[in-house]
Amino acid sequence: MPELPDLVIIQERLIPELIDRKIKSIEIIDPIVVRDLTGGAIGSSFQDNVFQRIERNGPFLNFIFENMNIVIHPMLSGRFSLDPKYKRKDLCIRIVTDGPVLSYMDDTRMGKVYFLKPEELGQIPKYKEQGVDLLSDNFTESIFLKLMDKNRKQTRVFLMDQTKLSALGNAYADEILFAAKIHPKTPCNQLTTEEKILLYESIKEVLLASIDFIRKTNAPLEVKVRDHVKVRNRKNEPCPICGTKIRRANVLGYDSFFCPNCQRAKGKQFIDWGNS
């Protein structure tokens, strides 16, 4: 949390609240998440600066001012709130404007908040190395097939490679593979062209449907909406298609959830998922 659909909605909801607002102060409650490239002058560098734009670059949100930027990479547990009274222990940073108060919270402190100038964006790890934006017009079927061509990685590992596709996390990688009926451990080069095309279509359909669901839910900004997921974190629950128990597997160090009947493994596996 948050993943791509979440970030789209966060961006949508923050833009009308923050654009043209002036920063009055920045309160750093826990500096462990801060990456200060201003030379120790966060307060003076940002005071009275006006929010101009909020852009998304893969898993990053870039808050743009005239000559400065605040880039937030929330990673696994970062969250945002516009509640001015938010005081819980996971609070890390408060940005006080002449209107709303934007808070960044992170109970694991894994996320990062960068204060910097635009020319320093390349110093943020992975910021400039993002692959094709999955929600952009550049994400075409032909580009996707080209990226997958001769790739030997497991399909789930490929989906989460941000240098290729920007950007999927654990939850939506699982949901997309379920929609495409592909086992997460299937190597890309074992997929047929038809399966690759279905995977491409599933990426677009799952992301757009999830964005629409989260938007309609209209939950508080800091709430993770996952009511719509079909397999993620649903181990031993019945598959919504066939009723088989959802299973969990380790894929390159990450938990992956799938239906062993709808997403049959190709070739011999160490585990017989259908009987385990």
Write the layout of secondary structure elements.
Blueprint lengths: L3 H15 L4 E6 L5 E3 L5 H5 L6 E5 L2 E5 L4 E5 L4 E4 L9 E7 L3 E6 L5 E5 L15 E2 L7 H8 L6 H5 L5 E2 L3 H11 L12 H25 L29 E5 L2 E5 L18
Parallel strand pairs: 2-9, 10-11
Antiparallel strand pairs: 1-7, 3-4, 4-5, 5-9, 6-8, 7-8, 12-13
GO molecular function: 8-oxo-7,8-dihydroguanine DNA N-glycosylase activity; damaged DNA binding; DNA-(apurinic or apyrimidinic site) endonuclease activity; lyase activity; zinc ion binding
Organism: Leptospira stimsonii
Cofactor: Zn(2+)
Question: How would you describe what is shown here?
Answer:
With 276 residues, the chain is an alpha+beta fold. The protein has 2 domains: 4-123, MutM-like, N-terminal (N-terminal domain of MutM-like DNA repair proteins, Alpha-Beta Barrel), CATH 3.20.190.10; 141-258, Helicase, Ruva Protein, domain 3, CATH 1.10.8. It contains 6 helices and 13 strands. The chain has a 5-stranded mixed sheet, covered by helices on one side. It has a 4-stranded antiparallel sheet with strand order 1-7-8-6. Strands 10-11 form a two-stranded parallel ribbon. Helix 5 (170-180) packs across helix 6 (193-217). The radius of gyration is 20 Å and the shape is elongated. The chain starts with a helix and ends in an 18-residue tail after the last strand. The model has no long low-confidence stretch (mean pLDDT 95).
